[in-house]
Amino acid sequence: MNLSTQFYSVFFFTIATLHHVACAQTSSEARLASSMEYKNCVDTFEKSRNSIGTYCARISMFLHKSYLANEIDPVLHSSFDAVKFDVEIASDVINERLIAIRTLSPLQAGNRFPSKQVYLFVGTGSYFLNAKGVFTECLEPRRIIPFPDPLSLGAGYYLESTMFYPFDEVTRSLHTAHSDMRAGFKVNRNGPITSFHRRNEHISFDTSKDCVPVEVQHEGDETGAQFIQGRTKHILTKGVWLPETVSYITNKRVFLHMELDWVSVNEPLPAGLFERDTLERLFSAKDANDLLSK
Question: How many C-beta neighbours within 10 Å does residue 109 have?
């Protein structure tokens, strides 16, 4: 190889190397930019919801029976295509206090056997109202208690809709996706909707509404996990965008649909609402339906 050939060989090798390094830097910068954009969306969403100190809400949940497992009596399970859960929740978010009534009834006229459960959270303590009308400590972790945190709805991949995953835990999960830089994000923008795709997951934020999540999607994988898509519509309540309807879809069919009524946000709650003795007297004296009107 003569000197001229050696020179051009080294020259083109250097150019190729520099191009490769530049592409790698560009790719790394793009991943960082998309990751920071994602983080900003989550931060904005989290800040908005964290402005809520108290709330009262009603949730109507409609579930297809094939996804209920052991939620209802086997006889009812075989008799109805769907069931409805009604959940009433009052929460003092700042002081970590919450009471919820969860009522189950089949979606048929003249249903005969509604099932009711009452839960009370005070700090780290969790209690349920037993058959004798007395609050007893729950031994199970809160995340398997069968009602949602309404502030979390629409922000996760379905589990937060059927069990109690508090809002701070759901947002912590969203932040974890930001800290995992290995895959980066692909970003699509359509008007105010900014969508992020990573591996087999997808989430879209509405930047015109404090970056609330409007769609989440898990595309399934080789482990057999199902394709699940969640869609959320929001309503402006006391200056905060909150979920109004949430639907989860798999196999082109809605298997869970929720409708929310925000009775109050950031308003004083009744005295004694989270005191076990007061509540036990209330439930022994009155029908516990429509807790929020009492």
Answer: 5
Rounded distance between C-alpha atoms, residue 42 and residue 4, angstroms: 57
d(CA 240, CA 255): 28
The tokens for 206 are 């509405």
* 11's tokens: 């020259």
Task: Please tell me the distance from the alpha carbon of residue 133 to that of residue 113, in angstroms, as a whole number.
Answer: 19
| CA angle (238, 243, 245) in 5-degree steps | 130
Describe the crossing of helices 3-49 and 167-179 by its angle, rounded to 10 degrees: 170
Rg (CA), the chain: 25
Q: Is 49 left (phi over 0), alpha (psi -120 to 50) or beta?
A: alpha
- Residue 51: CB atoms within 10 A of its CB come to 13
Whole-number Å distance between alpha carbons of 102 and 146? 8
* pLDDT tens per residue, range 187-231: 999 999 999 987 778 899 999 999 999 999 887 655 445 678 889
Amino acid (one-letter) located at 143: R
What are phi and psi for residue 129, nearest 5 degrees?
-85, 115
CB 240 within 8 A of CB 51: yes
- For residue 55, give the H/E element and its range: strand 54-64
Distance CA 24, CA 38 (A): 21
| Tens-digit pLDDT profile for residues 24-46 | 444 566 566 777 888 899 999 99
Question: Where do the structural domains in the chain lie, given as residue ranges?
Answer: 37-293
Residue 170: count of CB within 10 angstroms of its CB? 23
Task: For residue 10, give Cα distances in angstroms to 4, 16, 28, 161.
Answer: 10, 10, 27, 61
Q: Reduce the DSSP state of residue 277 to 3 states and report it.
A: helix
Say if residues 60 and 230 touch (Cβ distance below 8 Å).
no
Q: Domain 37-293 has what CATH class?
A: mainly beta
| Cα angle 203, 204, 208; round to 5 | 150
Rounded to an integer, what distance in angstroms lies between the CA atom of residue 165 and that of residue 145?
9
